[in-house]
Predict the 3D structure of the following.
Amino acid sequence: MRDIASSSLCELADAIRQGRISSCQAVEACLDRIDTWQPRINAFVAIDREAALAAARHADRSLAAGRILGALHGVPLAHKDMFSRAGRTSSCGSPIFSGEIATETATVLERLDSAGAVEIGTLNMTELAGSDAPGEEPLGACHNPWNTQRFNPGSSYGPAAALAARLTFGSLGSCTGGSIRIPAAACGVTGLKPTCGRVSRHGALTRSWSLDTIGPMARTARDVARLLGCIGGFDARDPTSSDEPVPDYEAGLSIRPAGIRIAVQRQFWSAVDHHVADALAGVQELMVRLGATVKPVDLPDGHLLWDLASVLSDCETATVLGRHLRQRGADITEPNRNQLQRGNFIPAPHYLEALALRGRYLREFCDKVFADADVLQTPALPVPPPTIDQMRDQRFADEFHRTRLVNIYTRPFNYLGLPALTVPCGFTPDGMPVACQLVGRPFDEATLLAVAHAYQGATDWHLRAPQIHRTY
């Protein structure tokens, strides 16, 4: 087969199972690329070469003995550094957790272990899964491999950058307001925020128990489908996890787009760059050629949903992480100290109202959008990421955040708990990835993945990779 690192997760898993490639070869291919790319993009927090190679040798010996460990037999993965694993520390993007050794392993990591995956290291993230100001990242900035001078938004930026640079074949991130979908969009990879409750959060950093969601990131919809099938399902250790049956997501990819109904916004919630708008229109045109129908709809007020999500996020973050702020506040950067304090100034009735309205707005949204549609398409990021120098200008940064351009199309769906998938769909003239977002009914990740798979079968945006020799 072609260069190992260029393979998708599923292609690699199939090749390992068929004996065409060994797990050791796959791990070594990742480690070689990490050696080249890590100094440039700083995607990894830790790289465990010996443990990864030992696990790969075990996978190869098992295969030689006729034992398949699971759907991810021998596949190298790396995850956002916020999932506990017994016997090691997880930074969660902050020095305040240094020295804390986990006594148990996160459910999602246990399930990936059971599927035969090989973990090669842990990946960079923003402090406490919040938002870092350029130059103040406790673990050092993680740069976008497409252009290291561009601001790389979203707390799961380590997984997105590592996937784009072909340093790993799949990853897990977390999403409170868009932190899977936003960096996936900025780096040109595929990222899924599942329905709230679809994936266990046991053993993961908690920021907001009403909004946090764990989800898979990879280069293709098929890869994401396989990862979701491995990690989804009820977990007695997470009282918020759902017992909704987990379908065969990969089998569901065979659903043809003929007859699929796609709703698109009649009016955007914010300004949208014309290159992004053109790319979204291109997705719609292609899906129509594949047999889908496209229907403009008027969406409920996204800014209201954004505000309600922010109330929940701010209050719950202040509650969950307040102890760390009181005990280790000096070790937390000023932007994140300010974030952790905001919730203390929100009246309790406002928080309770935001909780109480959630079910009503979910019903109204689904009735309005999904009565005549199977999938909603929106932008993921409405504008290309600005430069790091621009974000260092406080006036520019304040205006950028005030207009909510980073997460106006993602945070509302955390509030509603709906599944949402980011799919690469083009590039700007200066070479930055563009993506669309697909949103579905509760627990209907299968339709989102099938639509994305059909689209990726007819395009090659998701196959393009950044080049190390590029200069800016």
